[in-house]
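On clarity, I found the account of how folds are encoded harder to follow than it need be. An entry of this sort, consisting of the sequence and the corresponding backbone structure tokens, reads as follows:
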Amino acid sequence: MQSLLGYKTVSMNKWVVVALAVFLTCGVAHAADGKIYVIHEPGGVIRFTTKAPQEGVQAQIFTARAHGFSYYRTKGLGGGFGGRPGGKRLYPDLYARAIYDAAQEHRIDPNLIKAVIHAESGFNPRAVSRKGAKGLMQLMPGTARMLGVRNAFVPEWNIQGGARYLAQLLKRYGNEAHALAAYNAGDVPVLRYNGIPPYSETQEYVRRVLHLKKQYTAVAHG
């Protein structure tokens, strides 16, 4: 939560980290041919692009689904992308009941909660960031205590606490984008700049979450 998405490392399976990053960074709606290419560069840098890499460049192709991620790994580019499907998927509806209950109790859009969980942890209830944020909504220990969350790894408790905190921010700022910026970077930068701070990571985080919310809303309405 207080860590910056895209620069935060969580203890998830590699496929979740990469699939989540691809979807959030690029967004399938922006890919001209429906493909998002993932290129692993030296030094551990992962680059995302909707443009097909040059011949000879090793890459992966990911395709987002409405109810999860299916990914395709290329064996090598050569004359083109052949790719075969992998068996990994990320299911956002796994905690639908807990999300709905928290949304009702705290009077916020369940699709916003779902989008924050997606962005923060990739729906991994055991996710832990380098700074110690835990669980589905990546609650820092101090924040979890303030919210009365005794164990941040219990999905229902984490969702309740995160939703309560998000509702507080929405009430405080009266603006969804500003509330998300505070969820990501904290209150001080948002108050200092009277809005989304000029931090590229936070600005990208807000864009990602709002984009995800649109995606989930579209799915919910068929």
Q: What stands out?
A: Residues 14-85 form one domain. The CA atoms of residues 103 and 110 lie 5 Å apart. The chain has eight helices and five strands.
